[in-house]
Amino acid sequence: MASLRGQLLVAVVLLALAAAASGGRHRRTPSSRARFELVRAAPGASLQDRAIDDRLRHAYISGKLRRRAAEVGASEFAMPLTSGAYTGTGQYFVRFRVGTPAQPFVLVADTGSDLTWVKCRGASSRHSPSSARVFRPAASKTWAPIACSSDTCTSYVPFSLTNCSSPASACSYDYRYKDGSAARGVVGTDSATIELSGGRGGAEGKRAKLQGVVLGCTASYDGQSFLSSDGVLSLGNSNISFASRAAARFGGRFSYCLVDHLAPRNATSYLTFGAGGLDDAASSSASAPVAQTPLLLDRRMSPFYAVAVDAVHVAGEQLDIPSDVWDVEKNGGAILDSGTSLTILATPAYKAVVAALSKQLAGLPRVSMDPFEYCYNWTAGAPEVPKLAVEFAGSARLEPPAKSYVIDAAPGVKCIGVQEGAWPGVSVIGNILQQEHLWEFDLRDRWLRFKHTRCTQ
């Protein structure tokens, strides 16, 4: 077998050298053509040797086509998604398997991140000892470092470091988040193991490999938000994010449904790539209507997903909020972010919303509780909470349940669960306001669709 391969290699090299020599002796004209003589690469190989080679190649081709058929036949895949309340955090966690053989991790599902990363062996933090679950690149047959001189590193990896001692050196990053947390390490690619569903030809329940996932191997990190997870799953609008890569293979869209942020650990919903989530939910005769609004994939807002807000209503009254607050061109705008818990509104919008809500709750005793401005002793009575509605472009209305904006802050205490943001500045629709809704991000056709649902079956 080795002898046959060696003879093949020698034959190819000799042909290449002959072609190069011929090209050096003769001037090529538009009508000239290269002519190669086909010779038997291994004239001494027996039929038995050739048969062995053929069987090996056939096995390789068959395996590759089976894997491709499974992926093409499947219309979607899903990943379990849970609230991180059991850890004391305001994040949502997704279970993720990466490497060959696959190694399991629990990652923060973050629409504001463009780099997926996991804690690697030896990862350290100032806040806690190393995580029990760590990625070992050396143990993965499919891990491949990305060079610091590559276009991926220099153009797409966020916070990539400029020190590149040699073109083949690993691409390093120092990823900084707006809350002050950070992750540092090197970038490579690896395979993610996914559970196929909704397929044709028996794809349901089969596992497949999603190749070429850009993955950060984090050696050190800072920030409380990473203490209870093994890293971050990037769902942002970016060429290298997991969401963009996976959606490109499965229908150009992904969706998630966030259970109540205080739900127990066993209350599970799903992060779905493909046509699943919203189509399945819409098929129910008793389901709420689906609303849709343009998804603004603006480079100035990248990797975040922006939406156009037309108005905000409280108790049926449209609030007086300057239109500039929602205008990206005027340094405003609004984004959805699964990695932010509390909704943050630019000052003019914040003041209008809390004034309208607090006016309706004026009969309750006020209490002080950081970081909120308006908190109430709810044991003194349980008044009807005024309805809040956010109207997006296209008359799509988000009407969250009262518990999503007048939230439980302590036993017997509820607070208006929004925070004041800087103006000029962007407003952020956090995951608490998004809870108990199914959100679909159609990256191909640029639509955001959503509907009210409990998220758990």
Question: Distance between the terminal alpha carbons, to the nearest Å?
Answer: 56 Å
* Fraction of helical residues: 10-25%
**Secondary-structure content class:** alpha+beta
Beta-strand percentage range: 25-35%
Mean of the pLDDT scores?
84
Largest sheet: 14 strands, mixed
Count of helical regions: 7
Shape estimate: elongated
Kindly provide the radius of gyration, computed on alpha-carbon positions and rounded to a whole number of angstroms: 27 Å
Please count the beta strands (DSSP E, at least 2 residues each).
Answer: 27
Parts with pLDDT < 50 across at least 5 consecutive residues: 1-31, 68-73, 199-203
Helices, strands, pairings?
Blueprint: H1 2-25, H2 47-73, E1 76-83, E2 92-98, E3 103-110, E4 116-125, E5 144-145, H3 151-156, E6 171-176, E7 182-197, E8 207-222, E9 231-234, H4 242-249, E10 253-257, E11 268-274, H5 276-282, E12 291-294, E13 305-307, E14 309-314, E15 317-318, E16 334-336, E17 343-346, H6 347-360, E18 366-369, E19 372-377, E20 388-392, E21 396-398, E22 406-410, E23 413-416, E24 418-421, E25 427-429, H7 431-434, E26 437-442, E27 447-452
Parallel strand pairs: 3-9, 4-8, 16-25, 17-24
Antiparallel strand pairs: 1-2, 1-7, 1-11, 2-3, 2-7, 4-9, 5-7, 6-7, 7-8, 10-11, 10-26, 12-27, 13-16, 14-15, 14-20, 18-19, 19-23, 20-21, 22-23, 26-27
